[in-house]
Structures are given as structure tokens and as C-alpha cells.
Amino acid sequence: MIKPLVIGLWACLVTLAASYAGAYWAAGLPPKAKEEPFLAGLEYRRVDPINIPMILDGQIRGYVIAKLVFTADAATLRKLPIEPQIFVTDAAFSEIYTNGRVEFGKLSKYNLAEIMSNIKNNVNAKLNAPVIQEVLVDGLNYIDRTEIRALANRMTQPAEPRAVRQIEPSTH
Fold this sequence. Notes:
The longest helix is centred in the N-terminal third of the chain and has 27 residues, at 2-28. This protein has 5 helices and 4 strands; from the N terminus they run αβββαααβα. Strands 1, 2, 3 and 4 form a 4-stranded antiparallel β-sheet that branches. It starts with a helix and ends in a 16-residue tail after the last helix. The protein has a domain at 42-156: Tetrahydropterin Synthase, Chain A. By secondary structure, the chain is of the alpha+beta class. The chain has helices spanning 2-28, 74-79, 85-99, 112-127, 145-156, and strands at residues 42-46, 50-56, 59-73, 132-144. Residues 1-23 form the signal peptide. Keywords: Signal.
């Protein structure tokens, strides 16, 4: 009867000693460096296409369709509480709508470097940090109002039936 009691007491003491030794050993080790699961460096993010109306004399003359990409530090992007795409979209819309300098009836060049720089500076000012490194143009198009109406008319009109040609069976 005493033998099982001594074996149980011995098992409890060994377990307590092992737990104490393990905790003491773990406390003495320096903390592990946190591993970065992502590659460090710049990250490219696409912004959804932005449709900006061009208004002249109180009428919409057409739309500028802008597709943008921005670069930012990957570590900084992960720390942000909100996605910066929203701010890039807002800054791009404001910049192109107010300072787009679209001259109707004329095909002219934009100063894209200045526009992209203004977008970057406006976004960084709203985020209170230099988050955005660069804003790049993926696509920039202008669609005239008449082209939009012509396209809409083509889509709403039923297709004309085509004549079906009879194919004669081949004789071999």
C-alpha cells in the first residue's frame, strides 16, 4: 500500500521539477526576432478605374478614364489602419477634375509628371506620412459624350437578322 503512494509522490515531484526547469530555461533565452512573412520593399497597388466628367458651360462634354498604380513601402502599408487606395482615388479625381486642363476639340499633352506628383503629395498630406512613393499611369483615356451615346445606341438596338445560306450536301 505504501509502495503506490511513494510512486505517485515521486511522479508528482518529477513533473513539478521538469516544469520549473523548462520555465527557467525558456525565461533565460533571448526573445526570437519576429519573422517578416512578406518580402520587404516596395509594393505596387492598382486603383480601380476612375471616371472623371469634363464639364464645359454647364454640360458634360465627355469623361476622362484614368487607371493608376501607386507604389508604397510594404511594411508601412501593413501598418496603416485604412487602405490608401481611397485617398489616391480622391486625390486623382480632384486633381484631374479641377486641374485637368482639358481643351475640348483639341488634342493636347498633359503634364503627367506634375499631375502625378500633385496626387502623391495630396495623399501623403492626408495620411500625415510619406506613405506613397510614386503614382504611375496605367491608362488615361478620353471618351467624348457623342461616342458614349453612339455606343449606347448600338447596344440597345436589336441585331439585324442575317441571311442564312443553304449549304448543299457534298457528294464524294
